[in-house]
Design brief:
Helices cover 30% and strands 25% of the residues. The two termini are 32 Å apart. The chain is globular and about 70 Å long. The strands form 4 sheets. Strands 3, 4, 5, 6, 7, 8, 9, 10, 11, 12, 13 and 14 form a 12-stranded mixed beta sheet that branches. It has a 4-stranded mixed beta sheet with strand order 19-18-17-20. It folds into 2 domains: 324 residues, 3-Layer(aba) Sandwich (Rossmann fold), CATH 3.40.50.12780; 104 residues, ANL, C-terminal domain (GMP Synthetase, Chain A, domain 3, 2-Layer Sandwich). Helix 7 crosses helix 8, helix 8 packs parallel to helix 9 and helix 10 packs across helix 11. The chain has 11 helices and 20 strands. It is α/β, with parallel strands linked by helices. The structure holds 5'-O-[hydroxy(phenylacetyl)phosphoryl]adenosine.
């Protein structure tokens, strides 16, 4: 069995808990001393970092939620001054502003090593050619994997997304053995490869897929189509990006790196559920320097599994993500909140405040998002003089906020059904992947 950092991956349970406690105390002191909004929360709860004496005391610490990032936009949750930050990434926030996360040089090094653990764990090494077919840029998926692939000494193909036929051509010509992308893009790549009749000319043997939910059925489809082993990769920007939890070759739950994160799985009242029960994953970072974060509500529903695993690693383990506790939608790997759409629409006087979001999967198995909006009665009194310009205006506003092409369907006032109870704001017609 190969490990990247065996000392931490196979650490004795008791030593691991000791290490976690030491790091939890350090993180609590760090945010208390360096992040004013955390200090305020500590004071409101009547605690100081000295109240943390055992791992169970994590329950005394304040929670962090997505809107805390918005309220402290862009850099106010960072625990180091800007001169110590070497990179930022960003993801969708719940409103117009993205959530921004920062990294010190030490964070980047920790992340690369954590990714290297994951890749080593699924048998990827220096002899592999790994194609990284996700977005490079503000999304954490591109650079996060990139540095891990380089770290283990594999040949990195930083192909990014798009131009599917070229992606496959590179895959064939470079004899790519390992692929990273979202599971929905992997399905599209498989379908295109089948159409181009090049599936049997590929050298793929392993795929790492994540950034959005996918099922074990999709795993089977991908494994059969490409003749690979397909592994689930979980992560989120707030906790660093991809790499936080990853499947091993047992393909039975994800290892979550307990020397870097403290895991809680909580019910809707904020109480710890028993092992094996479903709940929301709440994470505390233990080693992050630029952006340490306490008890972050990920919104992802999972189960805590027994930590013993056939691979010999002793970390905590979680089941694959079973769903979301909030209304966040994931469209082509991009997080979309209905509230972001609402914000954009409310700023356009030509339309009413009624809207409906439609999600579909096109024949290439890619997600499509469209929004149905109603025109106001006296619509052409302002700057926008015709239907086409209203449509164009709303589409470009949505594109700039959501970072994804969204088509707008203009309908007459009164067309969208009104209900006394909750309106059905989202119609998701995608079959589960
Ligand atoms: O999606 C990081 C990432 C990139 C993970 C590439 C894996 C691969 P965010 O854009 O901040 O970060 O979105 C995080 O995506 O809270 C989950 O809801 C969802 N998500 C990520 N991985 C999985 C997965 C990246 N394997 C949000 N299964 C998370 C289900 C996932 N959902």
């Amino acid at each position: 069995m190969k490990y990247w950092q065996p000392k931490y991956e196979t650490m004795d349970h008791e030593d691991l808990r000791k290490l976690q406690l030491e790091r939890l105390k350090r993180t609590a002191a760090d945010v208390y001393n360096n992040v004013p909004s955390y200090q305020k929360k500590f004071k409101e709860l009547g605690i100081t970092p000295d109240n943390i004496r055992s791992l169970d005391d994590v329950g005394k610490l304040p929670f962090t939620i997505k809107s805390d990032l918005r309220d402290n936009y862009p850099f106010d949750l960072f625990a180091v001054p800007n001169k110590g930050i070497v990179r930022i990434h960003a993801s969708s926030g719940t409103s117009g502003k993205p959530t921004v996360v920062g990294y010190t040089a030490g964070d980047i090094e920790m992340w690369a090593n954590m990714m290297a653990r994951n890749l080593t764990m699924v048998g990827i090494g220096p002899e592999d050619v790994m194609q990284n077919s996700v977005n490079y840029g503000l999304f954490t998926g591109g650079l996060g994997f990139h540095y891990g692939i380089e770290k283990i000494g594999a040949m990195t193909v930083p192909s990014g997304t798009g131009n599917t036929a070229r992606q496959l051509e590179m895959m064939r010509d470079f004899k790519t053995t390992a692929l990273h992308c979202t599971p929905s893009y992997a399905l599209y790549l498989a379908e295109t490869a089948r159409e181009l009749d090049i599936l049997d000319k590929l050298s793929l043997r392993v795929g790492c897929f994540g950034g959005e939910p996918w099922s074990s059925g999709t795993r089977k489809d991908l494994e059969n189509a490409f003749n690979i082993k397909a592994y689930d990769s979980y992560g989120l920007s707030e906790m660093i990006g991809p790499g936080v939890a990853f499947e091993c070759e047992e393909q039975d739950g994800l290892h979550i790196w307990s020397d870097h994160y403290l895991v809680e799985v909580l019910d809707s009242e904020g109480e710890q559920v028993s092992k094996g029960e479903k709940g929301e994953l709440v994470l505390t970072s233990l080693t992050k320097e630029a952006f340490p974060i306490l008890r972050y509500h990920t919104g992802d529903i999972t189960r805590l599994l027994e930590s013993e695993c056939g691979c010999g690693r002793t970390t905590d383990r979680i089941s694959r993500v079973l769903g979301r506790g909030d209304d966040m939608l994931i469209v082509r790997g991009i997080n979309v909140f209905p509230s972001q759409i609402e914000d954009v629409l409310s700023g356009v006087p030509e339309i009413t405040d009624q809207f409906q979001i439609m999600l579909d999967r096109n024949r290439n198995r890619l997600d499509e998002i469209s929004v149905k909006v109603e025109l106001e009665d006296n619509v052409f009194t302002g700057e926008l003089k015709d239907l086409a310009s209203v449509k164009r205006h709303v589409e470009s506003q949505l594109k700039s906020v959501l970072n994804i092409r969204t088509s707008v369907d203009l309908v007459e006032r009164g067309t969208i059904p009104r209900t006394a109870g909750k309106s059905q704001r989202v119609i998701d017609r995608r079959e589960a992947i």
